[in-house]
Specification:
mainly beta; Jelly Rolls; 2 domains; 47% strand
Length: 513
């Protein structure tokens, strides 16, 4: 709880911040400064090639009625979500040195504030000062040694979400803290020792502006980041930001582009030039986020609606470079999710007689075959790379869970059974991993809404059999619908493309290499 302090600091200096404060922008932030009368100045750096931050700082503590630490800050208004993977460097001197996120009313040392902190001894806590010069209060997390730290503001409610990377969040809330609409938001480090400078690093730093509480789904949207994820390390890279809704990137097998949909059109994002361009799909101009590349990368399957289809989604195919589409399914709703490795068959979610089931259809067109008949929603079908199985998600057990069946629909078996609602199983090209999108238990099992806290989770596959272990979290995302609806593995099975969401912030978003 950081109750240890140096007695001569009982007399408080109300200096705003060090005269050596640096005001040059650093990535997402407006500047950095020592807060309080520190003896040893701190520093901050930003590496634009890796989009990572490093900080050093000293100070007696962030506690009691005043603070001393180093702060990298940005002025913000309204609601926001702050996310990073943070680490202290070395063994350190004091077990209560700490790093994390902070929100302050001012840069004065006795300012009202809240911080989500990870301490050197592993203590993870939400600490806050309600008013100027008031005593600091604390709510501790049960877990310790968190390295994933998220702090969200919704009005006067602040939520800390923390985890050891790979595990799911634990949350702690303060519901009635008024810091003012315009605040200082940023990363901090404090040494808990006036004579010592400690250092820390911050990666995957994200500042997201969430959708307003009463937004209307499918009528109102916020912006999107196209990101890639190194599956082995969890390292994330932002490739592109748009204030529009971008959804469901497919990674082309030649490793040259990502294909995604936005406002009914399909786009090709050139991975070398980092630029998008519209893909010609002729008269098919109301595409949704259920689009799939053939395994050889020569054809693109689309799901789109029009007046001719009674505004119901039907399946089309088009050459990957664009052209005149061919309609495959005669009726809707039909939502395409998978293509067989030999290119001869497609699998889709079809609504027939009020029931959503999984169907197959020849890729050249022809009669469809119903593969599932269980009551409930079956969705997200996708072939394994060897063509033996179709993986899918289903609510037939009560919540949305991952299932698989033989390619002919036989031998249907449940693969996951946990507290989350799990969607869209994607098998890596080498067949050794499955990634799923997981929503919290508060979400209706049949729904996969926009703009929620979601996880990408990984399940190993050995000799064609998914491991019966708890899936590992590999990304903590503000997203949901459109994040990873369809296959988005890189050809080498090392990376994933996905979409995270945020309304625009005032400064340009940091873009990695």
């Amino acid at each position: 709880m950081n109750r240890f302090f140096r007695p001569f600091f009982a007399v408080l200096s109300l200096l705003c911040f060090s005269a050596s404060a640096q005001n040059q922008p650093l990535g997402l932030f407006d500047g950095h400064a020592d807060v309080g009368k520190v003896l040893k100045p701190g520093s901050a750096q930003y590496n634009p090639k890796t989009a990572q931050y490093s900080m050093s700082g000293s100070g007696y503590n962030i506690w009691f009625d005043h603070d001393e630490f180093h702060f990298m800050w940005k002025r913000m208004k309204g609601d926001f979500i702050l996310y990073t993977r943070a680490a202290l460097i070395g063994k350190g001197v004091d077990p209560h040195r700490k790093v994390g996120w902070m929100v302050r009313s001012s840069l004065e040392s006795n300012s009202a504030h809240i911080n989500a902190a990870e301490h050197g001894d592993g203590l993870t806590s939400l600490q806050f000062r309600r008013t100027t010069a008031a005593k600091t209060e604390e709510s501790r997390a049960k877990m310790t040694h968190a390295d994933v730290i998220q702090l969200e503001r919704r009005g006067n409610k602040y939520t800390m979400s923390v985890a050891k990377f790979g595990e799911t969040f634990e949350t702690v809330q303060v519901a009635d803290l008024s810091l003012g609409d315009e605040v200082y938001v940023g990363l901090f480090i404090g040494s808990h020792n006036k004579d010592v400078v400690e250092s820390g690093t911050f990666r995957d730093v994200r500042i997201s502006i969430p959708a307003k509480e009463n937004f209307v789904p499918y009528r109102e949207y916020i912006g999107s980041h196209i990101e890639t994820l190194d599956v082995a390390t969890g390292e994330r890279t932002i490739l592109h930001y748009s204030p529009e809704s971008l959804q469901a990137p497919n990674w082309t097998p030649d490793n040259r582009a990502l294909l995604y949909n936005s406002k009914g059109l399909m786009y090709r994002f050139d991975l070398k030039r980092k630029t998008p361009s519209v893909l010609n799909t002729d008269f098919v101009i109301n595409n949704n986020n259920d689009h799939v590349l053939s395994f050889d990368g020569k054809m693109l399957g689309l799901s789109s609606s029009s007046k001719e289809s009674n505004n119901k989604s039907v399946v089309f195919t088009v050459p990957v470079k664009g052209g005149k589409p061919t309609q495959i399914t005669p009726i809707g709703h039909s939502y395409l999710h998978g293509w067989s490795p030999d290119g001869k068959t497609m699998v889709f979610t079809g609504q027939r007689d009020g029931e959503f089931d999984i169907y197959s259809v020849p890729a050249a067109g022809g009669p469809e075959t119903r593969l599932t008949t269980a009551a409930g929603l079956d969705d997200g079908p996708e072939y394994s790379p060897d063509g033996q199985y179709i993986y899918f998600n289903s609510t037939r057990s009560g919540t949305m869970q991952i299932w698989r069946m033989k390619a002919d629909g036989s031998n249907q078996q449940q693969l996951t059974n946990d507290e989350f609602n799990n969607w869209f199983p994607h098998i890596s090209p080498d067949g050794k991993q499955m990634v799923i999108l997981s929503f919290g238990k508060e979400i209706t099992p049949t729904d996969h809404p926009f703009y929620k806290q979601v996880y990408l989770r990984q399940i190993p596959i050995t000799n064609g059999e998914p491991a019966k272990t708890t899936p590992k979290v590999i990304a903590y995302i503000y997203g949901g619908q459109g994040t990873i609806n369809t296959p988005s593995w890189s050809p080498d099975s090392k990376r994933l493309a996905f979409v995270s969401n945020s309304a625009p912030i005032t400064e340009t978003v940091a873009v990695g290499k």
